[in-house]
Amino acid sequence: MTTATHGAGRRRRGRELALRVLFELEGTVKDANWALDYQSRDLGATPDVVAFGRRIVIGCLAHISAVDSAIADASENWALTDLGKVERAVLRLGTYELLFEKETPVAVVIDESVELAKAYAGEEAVQFVNGVLGHVARQRV
Fold first, then answer.
1. Which of these, 35, 46, 53, 94, could form a disulfide with 14 (CB 3.0-4.6 Å)?
2. Dihedrals φ, ψ of 140, to 5°?
3. Is the pTM higher than 0.85?
4. Alpha-carbon 97 to chain mean position
5. For the CA atoms of the chain, what is the radius of gyration?
6. CATH superfamily of 3-139
């Protein structure tokens, strides 16, 4: 396995960790660090995976208003509250990365988010996630 492939795998696992944490935190008063620790142990995540997942979770929570606003603008016919928790979590982590982690290529963010949607929300979520994140990506400066 090459270093690039190995790094991509760690980032994919970090995104999966971030998704699980954002899903767990929604609608609760749980502490993000507690949820990160719990989910990291459950996934058997390595320290580098945890660090990347933590960066996404903390960044997403710090910018939640901008993230949710971008999602709302991109999903014209759907209110954020109408979406399933998994779809909302996937869109939040993808939108955060598109808006605030600009060193990550757009195609990578969208592809990874679509894969997470497929794995955790099912095939029916794929087109929606792809469309919303594509719209967010076109709006990013």
1. 53
2. -70, 145
3. yes
4. 7
5. 14
6. NusB-like (1.10.940.10)
Tokens describing residue 66? 């901008």
pLDDT in tens, 85-124: 899 999 999 999 999 998 999 999 999 999 999 999 988 8
126/36 Cα distance (integer angstroms): 26
Q: Are 9 and 110 in contact (CB under 8 A)?
A: no
